Amino acid sequence: MSWLEGIHYQGRQWGNRALDRHLRVGVTGLSGAGKTAFITSLVHQLTLGDQPAHLPFFSVVAQQRYLGGRLASNQPLSLPRFPYEHNLRHLQQRPAAWPPSTTGWSQLNLTLRYKPAHGVRARLQSHSELNLELIDYPGEWLLDLPMLQQDYQAWSHFCWALFAQPHREALSRVFAERLRQADLNNLAELELQQLTDAYSALLQEFRAHAGTYLHQPGRLLVPGELAGAPMLQLFPLLPEQLSAPSPLLQKLTEHYNSYCDYVVKPFYKQHFARLDRQVVLVDCLSALNAGEAAMQELQQALRLIMQSFRYGPASVVARVFKPQIHKVLFAASKADHVTPEQHKALTLLLQQLLQQPIKHSHYAAAQSEAMALAAIRASQAGYIEQGGQKQPCIRGFELGAAQPVTLFPGDVPSTLPTAELFKTHPFQFPALAPSTLDVQQPLPHVRMDHALEFLLGDKLR
Ligand SMILES: Nc1nc2c(ncn2[C@@H]2O[C@H](COP(=O)(O)OP(=O)(O)OP(=O)(O)O)[C@@H](O)[C@H]2O)c(=O)[nH]1
Ligand SMILES: [Mg+2]
User: Fold this and answer.
1) Same domain assignment for residues 445 and 303
2) Are 347 and 449 in the same domain?
3) Cβ of residue 101 lying under 6 Å from some atom of ligand 1
4) Record's SUPFAM superfamilies (predicted)?
5) How far is the CA of 273 from the centre of ligand 1 (A)?
């Protein structure tokens, strides 16, 4: 954005913020949590879903005061735009496909028009408007935020403590050995790049085989526009290599500091420092499938992320000059992968998983709600007869399958399972492909109306 365009855009935002007509909603979640699907669905519901039968718990729609939403005309021309239409095309194609994993950040602005419910505005105005700003980014980049609270040495210790855990230890042995053989006085470009490549391969192996969540730095997995930048030559030295000064230690410390200053801080400032409301999406079902260590690491990753945000009440002054998040929706995503009577347990599990992360964050002043939802429902829920009894089931296409299946995916534990339960009872929740959709109709969902009511309902009165 040019500086002049930037000033105009900021000025308009401040004006709208002061008038309480602007909301910046941050959709946060680790990679694969469902951020892109959530934003795509949210935009689709807000631009097409004006039928009370489709969004019964979204009060502005239920009360028939919603006049519609449109993609805003003030979308900044020089910022990457969220590929909304492209995502819809994936859902619409035959066979339908999920939108691809995100490789860079993008933004979408929406203008929502509604009739005020009561008060002076209702008497004087035929309609009011609310501007909504949504951003999307690769989940991997979110885990860079906690790096700001550490220096290179502390980060390296943290990484090797993590890599020593049983589910990571075997995979990290080869890289540890490679580091042990490295000459700490050798700063040759080729050597630095080879060590970085080995570390980046290790991160990919963790992600693919160990069911892990904490991968830092995120730009080694999804570099975005930074591919090839020297500061991405970054990996943790072994604890014993940190105690004495060395040229390699000094070089890596410089890269770490540059990474924090030129990548992580601007990312935070640009996207998260001005959030008014936040959605934290968590894919609890995939973590259950991946086992006990994955579940623990998910909890640790959420705790680190929650510490990076600023929460507080929403006075007008705070909203304009020092925005803080004052409403947080915690959502267990992909609830359509289980039968509806399991949703209660899924929500309780999410709450228990988040108990510790919330306790460690500066979170007290925010309002929150937890729920299980599916941004884009890929299954039909129903019942089958078995031994004269009605059993709940879902029907959908498993990823890659040509024929639909009818199945009971299993019970969701309402508390964090014990190690014993993980051993004796492996979870196998399915992953479903989207059914081919008519995108002229609002996307099928589970509880997106509850989510919209919590996030936007009070601003549309
Ligand atoms: N059944 C179902 N699957 C979903 C839903 N939302 C997401 N998924 C699945 O989860 C995968 C990841 O969803 P995304 O929206 O791409 O996740 P993301 O958080 O944007 O991930 P990154 O872009 O990698 O950070 C999708 O490809 C789907 O397989 C949903 O509402 N229902
Ligand atoms: Mg995405």
Assistant:
1) yes
2) yes
3) yes
4) P-loop containing nucleoside triphosphate hydrolases
5) 25
